[in-house]
Amino acid sequence: MLIRSRRPQDPTENDVTPEAMYRNRRWFMGAMGGLGLAAALPGTAWAKPPWKDVTPAEAPAWFAAMKENAAWDAVVPEDQSVDKTTPFKDATSYNNFFEFGTDKSDPANRAGQLTTEPWTVMIDGEVNNPGKLSLEALMTPSRLEERIYRLRCVEAWSMVIPWLGIPLADVIRRADPTGEARYVRFETLVRPEEMPGQQSRFNLIDWPYVEGLRLDEAMHPLAFLAVGNYGRVLPNQNGAPLRLVVPWKYGFKSIKSIVRISLVRDQPLNSWQKIASSEYGFYANVNPNVDHPRWSQATERRLPNSLFNPNRMDTRMFNGYEEVASLYSGMDLRKHF
Ligand SMILES: Nc1nc2c(c(=O)[nH]1)N[C@H]1C(S)=C(S)[C@@H](COP(=O)(O)O)O[C@H]1N2
Ligand SMILES: [Mo]
């Protein structure tokens, strides 16, 4: 991993791309129907689809203070001309966050109503320092870092996102695991009043959303707890106010809006494994050699893309983070997918 110095970035207003227009099919169909000639008028009538830009939440004082002293060059892609940072608009309008619905646009449209302040995180299980901590108490003993990570969804699309946060290992060390702790289990908030995806009686997911890591995976320096992205407080659709980021694993491991971190003895049953254990495992390491039963994992679609520029690229073992390989030596990664 190459280390390079860079300055903090702020989200920029990106021009609407063709991909963006195709993505919002409802708007696209509406525009087509309403204008009739839309296809013949590129760049004019349909240049501004009605997306709400993300209004930056006011950063809490502790976040602003941590930002003053942040490390902005902690981990960056080896080649930033290949792994260009995904535009803010794509990273905040094409999301998976089933608590708000299953459409990629649901989180952007609905997550704004989630109350993220105050926020507490329960630390419990096999630890000598259990307790319910405010987000500020959880974060401020550490130094804030920016990490620019590739994010590879199991659905075979990917992005490159600059996160702000702290090493997960810091939080685990402070919790002081007992000798019995072997795994870390994470839980997302359950709040149906604010999370419409939790209101249906026909839920795919048995809430709360649960994820887990082996303790040595959780202690790896790349495992990260994010409270921000693009130089600012995390937008709700990206898992505010606290989400996990495990860049060598499929995106579903990177659980959002965390309210509980438990050190446990037994391997947790994560939500997607519970839904379909033949398709989604516990480990979920990015692996181009082990296909999903219904599609290939050999390549990925890097956002933003378009009909004219599909932007397909080869998927890399461990998503290119080969330094984690020793965590899995001797394991059959076909069996432990
Ligand atoms: N609580 C919760 N966390 C979640 C999800 C979810 O539905 N609920 N989706 C996961 C999936 S499948 C992916 S790809 C990433 C997407 O993160 P992003 O929307 O910030 O890019 O979040 C993950 N974390
Ligand atoms: Mo995903």
TrEMBL record:
Its EC number is 1.8.5.-. Keywords: Metal-binding, Molybdenum, Oxidoreductase, Signal. It catalyses: L-methionyl-[protein] + a quinone + H2O = L-methionyl-(S)-S-oxide-[protein] + a quinol; L-methionyl-[protein] + a quinone + H2O = L-methionyl-(R)-S-oxide-[protein] + a quinol. Predicted to be exported by the Tat system. The position of the signal peptide cleavage has not been experimentally proven. InterPro entries: MsrP (IPR022867), OxRdtase_Mopterin-bd_dom (IPR000572), OxRdtase_Mopterin-bd_sf (IPR036374), TAT_signal (IPR006311). Residues 115-272 form the Oxidoreductase molybdopterin-binding domain. GO terms for molecular function: metal ion binding; molybdopterin cofactor binding; oxidoreductase activity, acting on a sulfur group of donors, quinone or similar compound as acceptor. Binds 1 Mo-molybdopterin (Mo-MPT) cofactor per subunit. Its cofactor is Mo-molybdopterin. SUPFAM superfamilies: Oxidoreductase molybdopterin-binding domain. It is an enzyme of class 1 (oxidoreductase). One of its GO terms (biological process) is protein repair. Mo-molybdopterin binds at N95, C153, T188, N238, R243, S254, I255, K256. It holds the Pfam family Oxidored_molyb. Gene3D superfamilies: Oxidoreductase, molybdopterin-binding domain. Belongs to the MsrP family. Part of the MsrPQ system that repairs oxidized periplasmic proteins containing methionine sulfoxide residues (Met-O), using respiratory chain electrons. Thus protects these proteins from oxidative-stress damage caused by reactive species of oxygen and chlorine generated by the host defense mechanisms. MsrPQ is essential for the maintenance of envelope integrity under bleach stress, rescuing a wide series of structurally unrelated periplasmic proteins from methionine oxidation. Heterodimer of a catalytic subunit (MsrP) and a heme-binding subunit (MsrQ). This is Protein-methionine-sulfoxide reductase catalytic subunit MsrP.
